[in-house]
Input
Amino acid sequence: MLIEALLGLFIVLLIWLYFREEENPLDKLPGPPKLPFFGNTFELMRFPPDQLMEQLIDFTKTYGDRYVMKVMSLRILHISNPSDIEVVLAHTKNISKSMPYAFLRDWLGSGLLLSTGSHWHRRRKILTPTFHFNILKNFATVIEEKSRDLVHLLKSKKGGDVDLMPVISDYTLFTICETAMGTKLDGDQSAATINYKNAILNMGLLLLSRITKVWLWTDFMFYKSSQGKEFSGLLDTARSFADNVIMDRKAQRAENKVVEVSADAEFGTKRRLAMLDLLLEAEERGEIDMEGIRDEVNTFMFEGHDTTALAITFGLMLIADHDDVQERIFEEVQSILGDDDRPPALSELSDMKYLEAVIKEILRLYPSVPFIGRKVTEDFKLGDLLVKQGTTIDIHFYELHHRADMFPDPEKFDPERFLSSETRHPYAYVPFSAGPRNCIGQRFAMQEMKSTFSEVVRNFKLVPKVKGHRPRVFADIVLRPVDPIYVKFIPRTK
Ligand code: HEM
Output
């Protein structure tokens, strides 16, 4: 009796919600057919996680570069044309992130990726100098050391097939950990360090699987589930590790043990300057508190390793598959460094223009962040279309970068596109996003990728496992290959 009454009440509530809904211009846009009340909720739940991205690509093909889906009463506007993307990304008020980002809240707190409004403005101002050219010079030493360690590791594989993802994930995680926190994850084999590395990797995986499980979207349901409990334990590990590193670093600074060093300096027991030091300096000036520092450190750890790991993985795959591109990179690196075994200076990395075009083309075909989301907090116009407060906007970089009208023969890997003087819409290519909320780590990422590719191609001839193979991809927060990618690294003879 009670159940029937509750069911009746629920139906009345749905009918009331349905008729209460205001008219919305978005309802005139194309999109997959919607059920009354539920919209496309069931359709979204039906897709296995590894097929969601392919399905959304199909929707773009069917309904065009501006279509709408509904989850209950929430309208999700999907866009993949440069003019709409320009309006959304350049908007100075609608800078809030959409709902799935909230899953990161317990980990990243009010760090730069998630925060909004005046809080975000203040933090962005404090953190921008962290990525200034002069500071990046400090990180060059770490990045170079790590890429040489990577070469060493690849040599030990003796030309066999290497499953790229685990190797490269470790590499970028070690690099960001040392540059962000000044902590060597690879050198330190203590249980705390190993647990931390595993916690970061596994939290990422759990978050991804939560996105596609609608029933785990509320915190209540998630933390009751076995996944949520595991996540909570990992979160404790990651938090206490970061807290210890921050406190240690603070103590070292008090004892004057942290110094700015150049690539060839002897620094004995002293530690190199890390991003964390710049945050601690901001704390000394009263601009940020300890909780804020922890949120930012966690944000850099999260944003700064998976994104570059995927770009490097897809990049090595494409370079291995294109001998001509590989030889041109080798020649360019040789022409700048000769047979000298020293690492390239930052200015020499900047001179690698062909390599830069290759990296741009890698990120066009495989943008590490294939889509982003915004929550509309203020009504605004997209051309003639009124987009109301409360709407979610999904901005599809992957589909944008694969548009044949912007990039003829879009599936072809052709770095020349970025060397020609041909002009295209300024928002046709935005792997690091654009506008006020663009990627703050863009220059750091380019430096890391250039260092890696130049060091690897200098030392090895890359050979694909299967010539011409392009993996199926899926997206959670970043774009991933469905199956492992293998490449052989044959040492070059000098
Ligand atoms: C290939 C590598 C990378 C790609 C493709 C990439 C891409 C992006 C994109 C598309 C955004 C916008 C996200 C959104 O609006 O939701 C973003 C934001 C961000 N990225 Fe990156 N990223 C990369 C590497 C890095 C690195 C290495 C770091 C840090 C060291 C970093 C730190 C951040 C941060 C903190 C934000 C938030 C910025 C803000 O909202 O003010 N990223 N990134």
About this structure: DSSP finds 19 helices and 14 strands in the chain. The two ends are 84 Å apart (CA to CA). Residues 226-254 form the longest helix (29 residues). The domain at 24-491 is CATH 1.10.630.10 (Cytochrome p450).
